[in-house]
Write a structure and sequence with these properties.
By secondary structure, the chain is α+β, with helices and mostly antiparallel strands. The protein folds into three domains: about 100 residues, 2-Layer Sandwich (mini-chromosome maintenance (MCM) complex, chain A, domain 1), CATH 3.30.1640; about 80 residues, Nucleic acid-binding proteins (OB fold (Dihydrolipoamide Acetyltransferase, E2P), Beta Barrel); about 45 residues. Helix content is about 25%, strand content about 30%. Strand 8 and strand 9 form a beta hairpin.
């Protein structure tokens, strides 16, 4: 993403502060692993901010990165309490893109987990087959070796990384997790029928928090916005997983 796109996102978050969602921004600034930000897609592509809808669809990872960078840039100009963990910035802050289906002139419909991989799509009326379940999972882990070396790593939402030996130059001692420095996030998991087959879904942020999670748990059918990921394991097999950016109850097909 260019600095212009980051600046555009900063302006958008400024409008969020001025438009009655200041509390959401304050909470996200203070606790980016447990809180979230909601961005309304039709507003983003409107005349005021003029983000290319094709960019939203085809480059969702860069879009979310620019959204986080724009929010972090905003915090330098606003009197908001920020988090005090020096191991990471706002790289883990969930960004929920809502109302994508209301963007005119561009089709975001999910058709196939492989063909649509790594693009922003919507799934309408997906029947819930299993779940949801919810639990705490690590967001940031820190390892320490007997010589006092410390290494911190962010944990991807869809994978877990582990370290067995010290990564400091000249040191190969075994390491153990420093549990006191573990940061966690709540993660919801469920399976839906897309109409063309079942796919596992993973959601965090707003959709793993109490109120929205309860709505997910009571829904028989969901309208989902997210990104299909192709998770490869050690033997080369692929397991498509849908990273959910927004979810709401829908009428069954």
């Amino acid at each position: 993403m260019t600095s212009h796109e980051t600046d555009t996102w900063q302006l958008y978050w400024e409008s969020v502060l001025e438009g009655g969602r200041r509390l959401q921004a304050e909470r996200a600034a203070a606790d980016p692993t447990s809180r979230w930000l909601v961005a309304e897609a039709p507003v983003l592509v409107g005349d005021e901010f003029d983000i290319d809808p094709t960019t939203l669809r085809d480059r969702p990872d860069e879009t979310v990165r620019a959204a986080r960078d724009g929010f972090e840039a905003l915090l330098t100009d606003e009197e908001l309490a920020t988090h005090d963990d020096d191991r990471y910035g706002y790289e883990l802050l969930p960004i929920h893109l809502t109302a994508v289906g209301r963007i005119e002139g561009l089709d975001f419909s999910f058709t196939d987990p492989v063909n649509d991989a790594n693009t922003l799509t919507t799934i309408d009326g997906a029947a819930v087959l299993d779940g949801p379940t919810r639990w705490y999972e690590p967001a940031v882990l820190t390892w320490r070796c007997p010589r006092g070396h410390e290494m911190s790593h962010q944990q991807p939402l869809l994978r877990n990384w582990s370290v067995e030996t010290c990564l400091r130059e000249g040191c190969s001692a075994d390491v153990v997790p420093d549990d006191a420095r573990t940061r966690v996030r709540r993660v919801a998991r469920f399976t839906v029928d897309t109409g063309g087959g079942a796919i596992q879904c993973v959601a965090t942020g707003r959709y793993a928090a109490d109120t929205e999670y309860d709505r997910l748990a009571s829904a028989q059918s969901l309208h989902l916005t997210g990104v299909s990921r192709l998770l490869a394991d050690g033997d080369g097999s692929i397991e498509p997983t849908y990273e959910v950016l927004a979810a709401e109850a829908a009428s069954p097909r």
